[in-house]
């Protein structure tokens, strides 16, 4: 059996800078106390998540939300807090110019502007040492006939090619897909098939990012994971959970069994091996819950699902599968899922010098009270801003 | 056969004040030119829709977005523009106090505040002569266990009772339901069953409002319409259309056949008779399209669906249904749907002294250019504000 | 804390006679070995489930599949095997006469025939001592216009009234709803709202049956459970699980967390108290897995979900909910869910003189080999027959 | 403007032999009068559809349902009735051996048997002169863990390679995908992405078949059509319509606007040009409606949608799209959709010597009465058999 106290240590989870700021729905962005006022404070919060979990050593940036004058200074700041800069997330959706699209806009001027922003993001990657450029395009149409579906694909391909050509040797594109929202008739990259088609056209440094909240009802996400691992094109996860649409709740909160099944396919396909390059990221909105605690809890949820996936008795599973023992094979999986892995993870934490209960330890640390007191005035640049 | 040139005249459609302001998704509210800066300007825009369609004689208000000091003055303003004030829409979702709910909040102080707002809306109804109080609650929970589902129902019932008791003799409550958003685990009024249960407990002045975008995938909306008409509890429609969730696109834009089927059930159940009290309202967000044109087009879409529904040969349909002629009965319905009713509606407009082509007439009127020039500075209070 | 070793004993789960026969999809009913050839053999199989779980003391019948000449003899047979006859399930969908509906058919002759069958089922209830008449109607339409939605409701109400009047003092109607299949445009009872409307019209002996596989995507089933318990109209569950539509998989197999949430609302609403009259039934199709084992596993899954629900620290949950501690309240629920209750249930079984591992004990019993050898020839009357 | 009276003539629609036999749901296959008892009678019925519509010149076969000793005789029979043999549909789902899969079965013996059946279908193609081998696999799993997702992909790829290698110079594979049913946890080819991945691996003679009823709720089918045309891999349509799942209703019956949008993308992408090789097929189940009439109506529905698509003013649309005129562009599309094209199609039919009203002409022909009288005794081999 897998060494349970060692294995989860392999899984490092990246948290996103924007999770620490206010977020909300179109109806309301509720203001919370102590939210960061600049990228430096976001990184400080992210460092807390790593300090208490030991499993969140990098933080993703969102440009322009996290634009600073001196990326070397920002990177050094992160390093001083024992975390690193992770993926660079391009944002080409929060400018009035992008109302009808960014890289797929019918207007060449807007496309140029959007592509230039993507190239700027690669510059920032060079400055921060980031490996991954995460591209999510809000582009799409709201009404049938509004624009030409195929022409938009051609424009998208053109922009991606230009960005791909600009990538450094170890840099990658992670191309995310999403079924709907903010566009309601078509998204220009609505599903994994579309994302993969573009990645295949680009080359080996282009891979697919699976956001667990971006699928149609009934979609089997772990099947997609298995397909992308088989194709060598699973680049990253954006973890979160949902009951309905892209709810962006804490990963594992809506369907912990699904998260386990996803991690089981990751284990099955070798995705925990760093050599496969699969990045594990959170992408959530803590609209009503405390943000740092929400991130800590999410990291723990991924760890628990992974620990359970590692508990699956692979030999017994294979044997039951090959003999067509439907209930037996399912039981092997469920045995792992039904195991309470929290004691194992507590043991792993203790062995690493961490508190066995990261939430309690964070609550007791006084950090939240400190930032509430300190972070008065100013305003974040971010979600819903 | 129904007199087609007369019948659509019976259908008057209420437009919402908030449709004239900027709206958007959580990702971005795109600013459009010439949007109203106060309720007076919103009403002026609504009056344009009526001027060109002859079918939108009232405008619904949203409180507090449309709060003014002098409702008599606002009503007189509307009257001077040949329109009236319609339903009053309560808003208990855009205040930080409501993060965990309004009338269902676990905190009694917040519940009191929310209920007081509802009572204030009845005061405004008295001042404006409005018949209908439209209640949509964003209340719900995001996480399992977050609050007690049943206790929230009890709190909701308590608030509704207090408001119901405050209603004047001809005033009504329209209780709207919605599957999800902004809450993602439970909404406190997620479906027509929940809304009806509360209406039945309240009394005859409480009826259900059907927003056509607020259902789970696969829900047969016209079935609900038939059920509510049978129960005498269909109070109103909030018309819009959707491909995925609550997209709030122009009614009839996503599935015109569904709109026709809904209007067919309205006709079948007598809902066009003003005595049944069914109110026909638009509730849409024109995120990327011009707002006044969007409303004109939506009114026309409802008129076209209604004209087609009135074309259904009721006797032939009944005969085919009773003899079990599946294809024959379906064909009767499809014959009406496949008819191009635009010439009939053009004729009806011309007979009323309107332009046969409301969109072209509006475009030619110069109104849009005028408001773009005039409405500089100021900011709307509204959606996404 | 609840006495865990005692509590699950309160939950008795009814298994359905049809689960022991062959079943399938429209594409194929795969034949399995050893399936029962008559109702007596079905009851014998059901008795095995009870023998190994101690929690399945009754078996539901399906008429006409389980029609026999002598119900007293059948009941005595069950009794001799230590089980009883449970609910009587009417079947008005497997006769060519019902192509366009049974009690809602436009043809009065067919309606009469269907209603007579329902009355026959009450006769059988008298003979078997059954309390519950479970009514699921496959009635509906495939095409818009095919029949009049409202007229079908009136016909349904008329038939239900006649059956309700025939009920004995302790007998009940359980009215099941289903979103779609086998009808594809409308079902005549598609949702809990429709079912409840009819139950309210009938009287207190009419209650709603919640089949966990009969909802639209995204429907929050535990919310419906809470609403029906609040209204005093939750009559029964038909447990199964689904990934897409009415898949009829083993309960708890697709989303064990949902099953836990459902049982949490049952516990919260007092539904485990026999006085509330909530019946817990399985309704599944074991298309590809061994049937008796599938039922045993399903009973165990319900027990595990219930044990976890009973583990929820109600006082801590209430306290967190009332103070608006979103993450704290959720954590109370998740703590219970994440607990491995299998040791507790094993202890409970051992205390009752059962094997701690019912599946292994059944496998070791030789029963399966015995029926495979004995049940040669004959053909079942049942699903897909 | 397109020559409307000429254009629809280009669109020839293949009808499926199995649509003429009885079909149903898992609950019941209702028997209809006059259904064919062998492949010869099915082809005779298909010939009627062509005789009255002039647009259904080929009929697809389903093997083994339509297995005959002498395919040359069957082909000659078809030719004598003025129709031809179309695609060969393999059936590897109606044998007890396939309970756990056909070409993806864990058992190599079953895989061999299934692949041999596919090769037999190519033999039949050689005998009938068919161009297309349509492959739909019911393969999948019902329970998590039941089998290895990735291993099943490898097995699938292996079988497809063998069949691909066997294809003659002008023969093609059409690989169909389906979200769910009959498998409920995973289908082995659930979406267009999976199908395309396999087609790309096979080579240019492998293309994707889009069944319009095989998608998750909310999927934008016309987007997929545009993507596949762009990739040169759209091989065929299986037309039908659905409200919920794979309802297999008459195409255009559930959402005629969607069908129009699909045909608009076909026109836009050049798919009406026979050189692109896109095949237009019906795949429906007439469970409750007369089958030949149902096919005639379906052919007419596709013709109407195509005629409307051809009416779209491409230049005006392009102009509005390029200038970002959202409402204007949508209006161009809607103008075409709202046009009543039935008179145009009646004119086209008359010009071809057909009745302007195919349904009425068929009804008056006496064919139905004739087959009811003649086809007594015997039983079909087919759906639900």
From TrEMBL, chains A, B, C, D:
Which Gene3D superfamilies does this one have? Divalent-metal-dependent TIM barrel enzymes (3.20.20.150)
Keyword set for this entry? Cytoplasm, Isomerase, Manganese, Metal-binding, Rhamnose metabolism
What's one GO MF term for it? Answer: isomerase activity
Q: Which domain of life is it from?
A: Bacteria
Q: Which Pfam families match?
A: RhaA
Protein name, entry field: L-rhamnose isomerase
NCBIfam families, from UniProt? Answer: RhaI_grampos
- Enumerate the InterPro entries for this protein: L-rhamnose_isomerase, Rhamnose_iso-rel, Rhamnose_isomerase, Xyl_isomerase-like_sf
């Amino acid at each position: 059996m897998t060494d349970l106290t060692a294995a989860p240590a392999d899984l490092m989870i990246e948290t996103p800078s924007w999770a620490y700021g206010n977020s909300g729905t179109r109806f309301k962005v509720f203001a919370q106390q102590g939210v960061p006022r600049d990228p430096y404070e976001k990184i400080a919060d992210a460092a807390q998540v790593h300090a208490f979990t030991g499993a969140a050593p990098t933080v993703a940036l969102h440009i322009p939300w996290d634009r600073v004058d001196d990326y070397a200074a920002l990177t050094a700041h992160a390093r001083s807090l024992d975390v690193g800069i992770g993926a660079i997330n391009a944002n080409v959706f929060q400018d009035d110019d992008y109302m009808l699209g960014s890289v797929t806009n019918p207007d060449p001027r807007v496309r140029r502007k959007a592509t230039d922003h993507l190239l700027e993001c690669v510059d920032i990657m060079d400055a921060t040492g980031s490996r991954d450029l995460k591209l999510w395009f809000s582009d799409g149409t709201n009404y049938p006939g509004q624009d030409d579906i195929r022409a938009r694909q051609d424009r998208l391909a053109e922009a991606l090619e230009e960005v791909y050509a600009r990538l450094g040797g170890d840099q990658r594109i992670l191309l995310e897909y999403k079924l709907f929202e903010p566009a309601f008739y078509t998204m220009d990259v609505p599903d994994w098939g579309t994302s993969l088609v573009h990645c295949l056209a680009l080359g080996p440094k282009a891979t697919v990012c699976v956001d667990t909240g971006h699928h149609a009802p009934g979609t089997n996400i772990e099947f997609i994971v298995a397909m992308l691992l088989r194709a060598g094109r699973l680049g990253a996860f954006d973890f979160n959970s949902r009951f309905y649409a892209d709810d962006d709740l804490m990963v594992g909160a809506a369907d912990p069994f699904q998260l386990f099944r996803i991690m089981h396919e990751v284990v099955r396909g070798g995705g925990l091996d760093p050599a496969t390059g699969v990045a594990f990221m959170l992408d959530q909105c803590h609209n009503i819950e405390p943000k740092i605690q929400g991130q800590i809890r999410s990291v723990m949820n991924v760890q628990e699902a992974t620990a359970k996936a590692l508990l699956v008795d692979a030999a017994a599973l294979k044997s039951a599968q090959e003999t067509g023992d439907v209930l037996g094979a399912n039981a092997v999986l469920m045995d792992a899922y039904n195991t309470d892995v929290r004691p194992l993870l507590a043991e792993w934490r203790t062995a690493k010098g961490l508190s066995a209960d990261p939430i309690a330890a964070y609550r007791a640390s006084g950090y939240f009270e400190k930032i509430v007191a300190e972070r008065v005035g100013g305003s974040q640049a971010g979600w819903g801003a």
